[in-house]
Amino acid sequence: MKAAIAALVLAGGMNAHAAVPQTPEAWRQAAVQDIDEAVRITLANHPGAHDPANPHFRTNLDNARQQGLVLAARVDSAAGYRAALQRFNVTIGDGHAGLYADLDPATLPVQRWPGFVTAWRGTGLYVVAAEDGGPPAGARVESCDGKLLEDLIRQNVFAFDGQVDEAGHWWSRARKVFIDYGNPFVAVPRRCRFLVGGKTVEQDLAWQPKSERMDRWLAESYNGQTLDVGLSEPRKGLFWAAMPTFMPDDKQRDAYRAMVRAVETGRQRFLDAAAVVIDLRQNQGGSSVWSRTFAEALWGKDRVQRRLVARSARTEVWWRASQGNADHLAGLVEQLTREGQVESLAWAKEKSAGLHAALARGDTWYVEKDGTPGASDADLPTDPPAFTRPVYVIVPGQCASACLDALDTFTRFSNTKLIGAPSSSDSTYMEVRWQKVASGLALVVIPNKMYVNRPRANGQGYQPAIYVNDPVWSVDVFRKVVEDDLARQRH
C-alpha cells in the first residue's frame, strides 16, 4: 500500500501523569523546552533531515525554532504555550512536521464566538448561520476594525494555523477568524462590515462563550452534514458513495467492505447508471486502501492497478531508518493483526521487515523501487466492459494525505470530474506517526517515509472543474450541481 496509514498508531491523548505547569514561568519554560525537543526528535527521525532534494530542510526547521521561541519567551499560560507551538508549525509550512499541543481542555480558555459562523467560498467569507440580531445568512464579510478581511485572516488565523498560500486552507480554515481560541497574541475583531443584498452594513460583535449551537453550526458549515460511510441511491441510477474518513473504525470498515461488494455484485447497475458521486466531505486522510478498493470495484481491479503502476513508473519510496520509525511499524503490525485488518497487514509486515533490516545495516534509508519503468496503462482485450458513466468527486478544502491519494486514483479515468473546493496539498513526506515530548504536553508529528519522483509534486493539489460556492454544502446543493451538469451534457 503506497499511501499513508496516517495516525493508525497514535501516541494517545494527554498523559494523565503529565505535570501541568502551575505558573507563568513554568508554561514559558515548557514552551521553550518542548520546541527544542521537537527539533531534536525531528532531526533524528524525519526524512527531510537527510533529503537530498530538500537541502534547506534543516535551515527551515531552525527558522521555525527561532520563530517559535520568540513567542515562547512571552508565554504565560496554556493558551500562549499552544500559540507558540502553532507559530513553530506554520513556519515549517508542512502539515507532516511540527509539534501539536495535547492539553487538558480545562487548562485552556473557553472558546468564544460572536453569535454567527462563516464559511469561505470562492474568494470571500460568508455568514452561514447566525443567532437573532446577527448578520443574515449569506452576508459577505468585507472588513473588520478598518482592516480588509483577508488581511485580518492572515494575521489572526494563518499566522498560527495552516498554510496561507494553499487555496484549500482558505476554504477549510479562514472561518476560524470568528472563533476566539484565547490566543494571547491576537486581538479578536470588534466591529465588522457586511455586504447584504448589495448594501453595506456595520455591526458590533458580541463575543460570548461557545454553545452547543455554535458547535453544531460549525460542524455543518465545515463541509455540510456528515454522512455515514456507505452507498445510497437518491434516485434511480444516481449512486452516492459517502467516504467521510479513511481512518475507519470497525463499523466503518464493515461499511466500506459492504459498499465494495455492492458495486462488484451489482456491476451492471453501475454500468447503466446516470452517475456515481463519491462524497469526500469531512475526509482528512488515513489509509488509501479504502479508496483504491472502491475504485477497483468500479473501474476494474486490473485497470486501476495498471494505471497506478504506469503513473508511478519512476517513483521510489525512501523510508527513514531510525529506531523510532522501526518501532512504530512493528507496533502497526501488532495493531493490524489484533484488529484483523487484512487489507493492510501484509503491506505493514513488508515495510516493517525492510525498515528493520536497513536499521540493522546502519543505512539511512530503506528504499523501495516503487515504480515499474515502461509500464503501460492501456486497456487489454481481456478486460471486462469499461465503466464509462460520469463520476463526480466532491472535494473539500482540507483534503490531503490519503484523501489526495484517492484523487490521484479517481482522476486516472477521464469520466471523473472534481466538484467543490480546491484541495489541500502534501509535501513528499508521508506515513505519519506521533511521539510525545517528555513533558507530556505535546506531540511531535513525524513522517516515516518520503516519495522520490512522485508524479504529484511537492505542494501540488487539485482544482475542481466545478466550484461549489454555496455557503451551505448540503447533499441537496451538490445533487443539484450534479443534475445540472448531467443535463448540460445531454444537450
From TrEMBL:
Tail specific protease domain residues? 261-465
Q: Which residues form the signal peptide?
A: 1-18
Keywords of the record, alphabetical order, are:
Signal
Pfam families xrefs: Peptidase_S41
Asked if Protein transport is a keyword of the record, the answer is: no
* Alphabetized InterPro entries for the sequence: ClpP/crotonase-like_dom_sf, Tail-specific_protease
Tagged with keyword Signal: yes
This protein is called S41 family peptidase
